[in-house]
Structures
1.
Amino acid sequence: MALFIIGDVHGCFHTYLKLLDQWNPKHETLIQVGDLIDRGNLSPLSIRLSFEIKKSFPDNSFFLRGNHEQMMIDHFQHAKTPYNWLQNGGEQVLSQFENLEMNLSDYQPWINELPLHWENDHVLISHAGFSGIGDPFEQNNSQNVLWSRRRPMKLDKVQIIGHTPLTSEHPQYYPESNTWNIDTGAYKGNYLSGIKLEDDGTLIELISIPTDMQDIK
């Protein structure tokens, strides 16, 4: 199956819905790179929608952990961390759950188990890139696949990442590392982007949806 990979949503639910209209579940595997939450107005609905998609399409939809999900997990597990989730969007997310009369606890077990990456023989997808510094999956490594802002190292696969928002309308390709960054800053009022690839990593299409102002104002 082809791959449809979606960048950082950050609570931009209406924009997320519009981009999901481009997904064909019969022929495409859906992968979202993490950071469903924080920043935008509707993190609870973004979580619930993703949770329901995974229930309905368990074999061809995958949702990865971003650094904002990790901050949420650490907050509730009382883990020592230099990052305070409440100060990075968490207070707003908790208020949104309360205002929508939704229970975050209904989704926490699922969020806690979100994987750090997805890969096949040709494509590797993670929230941030492989920095080449330390273990990319080690939680205490500040340059891991949740936090690194470095230009990714070149691997034997095409990498798809988010995490560092671009100012351009479309995802950006870095040939020196064979990497696509698909975070086009939805929560900044820019675009939410997706990329479609053949399962061998060949580009099919780039799709960018302007941020719906309901999501951020």
2.
Amino acid sequence: MKLTIDDVRRRFIKHFDGTTGSIYAAPGRINLIGEHTDYNGGFVFPGAVQQGMMAEIKPNGTRMVRAYSIDLKDYAEFSLDDEKGPSATHFRYIFGVCREMMALGIPVEGFNTAFAGDVPLGAGMSSSAALESCFAFALDDLFGKGDTDRMTLAKVGQATEHKYIGVNCGIMDQFASCHGKANNLMRLDCRSGEFQYFPWEPKGYKLVLVNSCVKHALVGSPYNDRRNSCERVAKAIGVETLRDADWDKLEAVKDQISEEDYKRAKYVIGEYFRVLAVCEALEKGDYETVGQKMYETHEGLSKDYEVSCEELDFLNEIAKECMVTGSRIMGGGFGGCTINLVETDLYKHFCETAKAKFKEKYGKEPVIIDVVIGDGARKIC
């Protein structure tokens, strides 16, 4: 269900003093291509979506934040001067953003807020980054001068994850939520922070996520293991990250590294070039090449990086059978969604087939999520 201003305002009025404040929003995101490249100094290619987080906020003249989560029907109060903060994760995001904005010199004061989201849970669309970006933008607007650059606001969200949530994330999710622009995807250089908008208005195509609603329990630290593999290969080659490697350099050290490390590096180097190929194809309106590269990415994530799972590979095979232009895992892997570039004429057939075949095999239907590329963090009213 689409979140509306009325939904948030009604709850804000009910839980606070009957007056209204200002309403802000920030989106979740998709990533067309460029997976597991951020910590290798490469490129990612995200876009903001229409689903996201929305919050009504009103200064209350104290040093206390009074927050109500509409979705979870949960309430908390905390002091801006308390270094520990609330224990519940959904409130710690807000606390962390407050503290990080204060560290930037923004004179944050106490406020009342009610917030909610319509980002599908478990779909890998970064509801947490949307919440962080929403509050960072709002606090800058309410208590600062409203001129803090958006990359700084994105870094506030990233620092919140690192310091207050314990998630050592990259910058892509918060970047996309802050910088999103309707009908545009963005190529972000994760090493330099430079980015470029690419128009995304494909005629005759739709982007659709198919959420497997699966998240496999993982033993050990699979993400850290893969990161360590990449770092070992980079060291063997003599470069800082695999961003600076190429096929010849990888082959030159093949006998010095394990087969597993070789496969991990093979995927990452290939993904670097695939992102650039997709950018070039988009500038030409060549969506067939975009789709081909998406399939290549899935193959690499499945066979070389080994972060897929049976259910996601099954959805990818259904996409091929339905003549979908492009399909791949979106996100870290081991569950979640595939992202699919589908010709409009094939959309209905693909969705119906995916739901029917997946249910027949696994006993439950996947969730279809239509993607519309929207704007980044903003004030609504």
3.
Amino acid sequence: MMHTLIKITAFCALPFLLRGNVSAQTHKPVTVIFDTDIGNDIDDVLALSMLYTYQQAGRIDLKAITVSKAHPYAVAFTDLMNRYNKMGNIPIGYVGAKGATPDSGLYTGQTLGYREQGKKVFTANLQLADQVPEAYKLQRKVLGAAPDGSVVMIVVGFSTNIARLLASGKDEYSNLSGRELVAKKVKKLYMMAGMFGDNPFPEYNVVEDSSAARIVFEQWPGKVVTSGFEVGARIHFPAKALIRSFPQLWDHPMVNAYFHYIKMPYDRETWDLTSVLHAVEGDKHYFRESAAGVVKIAPDGKSTFSEQAGGKHHILFLDENKIAPIIHRFVQTVGGHY
């Protein structure tokens, strides 16, 4: 996700522990498919780091990462993040060249090619996008093998991949259509999409592929929980936490990408992180869910929500007294401490 709103906030001295200091969990992990437009905004990278923490803690089983940004560096960067976090076995799917935002972005290429004293810091396969499956096919593979009603999908970029999933037909992974497969296998869909606050405008994740977003909100057969722009815009990730707690700085791909995205210092809005937190830790009630209703996407890309009995959509609300605890939790989970 990419947005233009930037706000520098004061750093709160919160615990930020290095990855690896993760408590083991005893409960059964939730199966997750993560769909991201990584490469457009840095919050996708922070959100992915949260998922690594949950994976290490046994809270989730991250079965696939699917990329909706149509540039091959997005795939190569995701692979770098996986391998750096010792999770190179997590499969990646790619939207392909016909997806949205075919530019390279502001950090993927810079991080992949980063050099110190004339030597490249990271190894990367820049041709990987040509070698991975199309995103919706990988989603079908994971869903086809999953128990009924067991998969949580987290989509923090464009709706392109999941719209293609809905439109897909039977294949080697399932005899069900995409819509039937989703209805049978997906427990819940969590999205960062839309803007439901005062003075709404066409939000980036929606407007970049508004036809796909419209398809998803009209046709998705199960429950959808959406975090709008106005939620993550009020919560800022403290950049000093990265500086304080990752001594490798430029040699860490997450920090390297953060430094490249915008000139430091800056505290970034946490749009995508809100969906990940609510999807995995909704029982902690960091956010309030609306009553059931319907999200509609207008021709200009603006989104509206109205309560409606029997509706399948819910939007998130943020209370002021929850902002500090949420920032604390973001700092912990991005840093690797469950």
4.
Amino acid sequence: MSEVKRYTLPEVPHLVHGRTNGSLTPLTLFWTAAGLELNVRGSELWVEFTADWDIHEPWYSFMVNGEFFSRRMAQKGTERVCVFRGMDPEKVKNVRIFKDTQAMNADPESVLQINAIETDGEFLPVPERNLKIEFIGDSITSGEGDIGAKAETDWISMFFSAENNYAVMVSRALNADIRVSSQSGWGVCCGWNNDPNSAIPPIYGQLCGLLSGEKNIALGAKEPYDFTKWQPNYVFINLGTNDCGAFSQPAWTDETTGETFQNRRTEDGKLNPEDEARFAHGATAFLKQLRGYYPNARLVWIYGMLGLELAPALQKAIDDYKAETGDTNAEFLSLTDDLKNRGCRDHPSVGAHRTAANELITYIKKQNA
């Protein structure tokens, strides 16, 4: 049996998935489904991780030859983990190591890094994908509740799973390189509780701007991201569910200034027209922002996995964007609210994510027919 040797990432061919700060020593995994892909010919493979957290521990998963293999909670400090052992040493295995949980903005200590790879074999090149897709969203796109029993109500990182996420399903089906930028509870103009600070557009231009704490700042989370490094063919924006939920929540009040923010309803329970229009304007502005980053991508606003109440406002946002810019490479796509497949925390289950993934796969294939 050959000796197992340790390699740093610059020493081996690989493909990084997700936004990075440019460092491979170590590789920091910021967002959902961020990870490392390898092709290795050998009988065993090990990975060295470093992790930390105060409240929400990171989880990670392994895929071998395109199929889910195992899932683990990261341990604090540095640990050496076996991906596989005893496999045919002559066969090439495609391995993907990815972060299963989202960037935890409420935990400034939360971090997950890959330090090194160990094998008794050799590494082969990993070709870049021709199809590149960006997914932007909230808890749905973070995979919240797509794992765990339906009765579970705890908000903990154990119940987030990138593996069961519609974005990863699309990636596997179409052999696409994907990036996911999502945060549970956040929206276009405000979060689920009307907090305007929980909005994706203001922080989207940073590497991972929703993170806080000295550790994440030192890792570059607040630095402007260089979008020229990776240009997608499609950008799917799955935001609006939390903005919609905020219409049924009390006003948010800034404890320092006393200023308030609220998406209101009228006396008959309908969406307040002024607030609905503000949301549509915010969605249009975000489309313009994205076009500045991605000049050639098709921008597709997807919505509906947890209701369609804001669908008319999103359609208006798309129409306004086209009218104001002359850009026709954008559209609204309604997804199925798969009610029979609600899962943990009343979020879409793995079955609902399959439904959404199949709809997006069909859409992309039709676009490329």
